[in-house]
UniProtKB/TrEMBL annotation:
Domain of life: Bacteria
Sorted UniProt keywords: Oxidoreductase
PANTHER family (UniProt xref): PHOSPHATIDYLINOSITOL-GLYCAN BIOSYNTHESIS CLASS F PROTEIN, PHOSPHATIDYLINOSITOL-GLYCAN BIOSYNTHESIS CLASS F PROTEIN-RELATED
One Pfam family from the record: adh_short
Organismal lineage: Bacteria, Bacillati, Actinomycetota, Actinomycetes, Kitasatosporales
Protein name (Swiss-Prot/TrEMBL): SDR family NAD(P)-dependent oxidoreductase
Gene3D superfamilies: NAD(P)-binding Rossmann-like Domain
Length: 315
């Protein structure tokens, strides 16, 4: 695979339908724009519809807007129902939206904000839309994680909602680790279907609004050093775009920037932390997520492990 993969490598997307969450700004916007420019029919699934309409106008092409607030399961269900009424198939679901280092707060359903938004909201949305993807050859669920899945990260089953104590970084790490574990377990369940695959990606350090809730001790140095250590949202979106569109991608893979420490650069295969591949934890997280969201997936668990104990590697 090329070491300099860019949007020029995206195959023609005419006839494909892509839903991109959090697509009115930053990485999601760049992802949606690149897909639309290659001919895809793109849905910007966003909390702020007015901003979404402005983003759609900037992109042009066949782009529509769908209201989606991932902090509310009622909103997730309403969005899924609206999409189901408009489309009889989906080719791409890109779970891009997220929050980072928020102060301690909860979603409308009482979940810790980062875990509820980044993981549970996307888990529910995927489960409610997956049957529109299963019959579609080449369909993909792409979920955005982060190098933060390695930082103070664990799935705290004894206190998933951080009710006893709260760490912004720890809660963010848990949510991004959950994104990866969800992808790997979903791929295991999808393997027997042979059509849809699940893939993950991370943007490295990109200059977006995501870090606006970071403590000043973190945010200010990043602001000063940004020109040296971060990359543009357009570059940061490339791993997600490669995961979504590169014909060589395999289910269960993880893409990130190819430069030093995966901070920036053109996208290539990445390897996530050892704990992200722990099958028993993935399966327990899945069961807990179904209980918390009330969403059951139309794919059964598999007793086989097509991912072995590590990432899938293209031949």
């Amino acid at each position: 695979m090329s070491d300099k993969w860019t949007t020029a490598n995206i195959p023609d997307q005419h006839g494909r339908v892509a839903v991109v969450t959090g697509a009115n700004t930053g990485l999601g916007f760049e992802t949606a724009r690149a897909l639309a420019e290659r001919g895809a029919s793109v849905v910007l699934a966003v909390r702020d519809v007015e901003k979404g309409e402005k983003a759609a106008a900037r992109i042009g092409g066949e782009v529509t807007v769908q209201a989606l607030d991932l902090t509310s399961l009622d909103s997730v269900r309403a969005a899924a129902q609206a999409l189901r009424s408009r489309y009889d198939r989906l080719d791409l679901l890109i779970n891009n939206a997220g929050v980072m280092y928020t102060p301690k707060q909860t979603t409308a359903d009482g979940f810790e904000m980062q875990f509820g938004t980044n993981h549970l909201g996307h888990f529910a949305l995927t489960g409610l839309l997956l049957d529109l993807m299963l019959p579609v050859p080449g369909s993909r669920v792409v979920t955005a994680s982060s190098t933060g899945h390695r930082i103070r990260a664990a799935i705290h089953f004894d206190d998933l909602q951080w009710e006893r104590s709260y760490s912004r970084a720890g809660a963010y790490g848990q949510s991004k680790l959950a994104n990866l574990m969800f992808t790997y377990e979903l791929q295991r369940r999808l393997a027997s279907h042979g059509t849809t695959v699940a893939v993950a990606a991370h943007p490295g350090l990109s200059s977006t609004e995501l870090a606006r809730n970071s403590p000043a001790a973190v945010r200010l140095p990043l602001t000063w050093l940004a020109p040296l250590i971060t990359q543009t949202p357009a570059m940061g979106a490339l791993p997600t775009l490669r995961a979504a569109a590169d014909p060589a991608v395999l289910g269960g893979q993880y893409y990130g920037p190819g430069g030093r420490l995966e901070i920036k650069g053109h996208p290539r295969l990445a390897t996530s932390s050892a704990q992200s591949y722990e099958t028993a934890v993935q399966q327990r997280l899945w069961a807990v997520s179904e209980d918390l969201t009330g969403v059951m997936f139309p794919v059964a668990p598999s007793h086989q492990n097509p991912m072995r104990s590590g990432p899938a590697i293209a031949g």
